Amino acid sequence: MGTNTIVFLDKEDFSFQDINEKPLAGAQSAFIELVQAFRESGFYVIVRNNCLRPYTDASLDWQHFSVSEIPKGDLYIVNRSTSLLPLVPKGKKILFWLHNEGKYLVSPVNLKSLIRRYPTLVFSGLYHRSTFPLWFLFRHRVIPYGISTKFLHFKKAVTPARPKVIFTSNPLRSLDWLMERWKVIHAKVPKAELHVFSGPATYGSWGNSVADRMKKVLDQVKSYESHGVILREPIRKDKLVEEIKTSRSMFYRGDKAETFCLAIAEVQAMGLPCVVQDLGSMKERIVNGVTGFVTTSDKEFEDRAIAILSDDKLWMEMNQALITGVYYKTWKQSAEMFMA
Length: 340
What we know:
CATH class of the largest domain: Alpha Beta
Number of helices: 12
Shape: globular
CATH architecture of the largest domain: 3-Layer(aba) Sandwich
CATH superfamily of the largest domain: Glycogen Phosphorylase B
């Protein structure tokens, strides 16, 4: 591909080892997965962020910013923060990778930084691109997140999964709304269980800042125990895979701030039809009526969720559609798109 050394710049404090040791937010796990995909493709990767634990081996040099000046590389991937753009040596290729809504870039400071260095913006989908109203003024690419290989070792379902539903997203993204829908769903499918893997631990310093708000929602979740709701701690990816293997679906309203939704993508890759609403990027993750349902009202959400839990023929058809593997990319494929 003509590029040998790739340099990632980021402001957060997560480390390379974290992905195997604790739950991570989607953007953090995506960052580490892309680094790993480049390494596996034969590139030498340098990462500079505010990590608490450095890591170095033959193909990766992941260190704290304080270690040295920004090393030389052939391609620079700047993660989220425009304040990192001036650190890139002039004349180098820069990709500016966005994860959250792009509207934060519409400020004098951020626009000034973008115009000065004019990087290629990288969005994870068409909806994501639409959240930055000035996207057409800049070079840009739409590159979806990949799916970790941890989630790709699925097998064709022989019999329908039991009515176990999971929720693995941010509790502030309409989990309280889902509890109200779940009361109706559970009344129709009384054997159904909803396992909620959610909490502030996944979201680092931001999670700590909103821990009280999250606790209020999670305390409400505990009150639904008699409706088959089980509140559990967030878990690492490898353990989450085992939970998904024994689950039937993920129910999630979605959110306007959901620019990709790795949580839905991962369970879909393992063959679970999902039920969501038409918010944010949800309709980019699910093919309505084929790999799950994208609903437009509370009543439709409830009805579709009940169908997923009770109609075995429907579930098997959607499961078989999902395991064809045509609805997602691997991280290696995403890395190739970054290099294209």
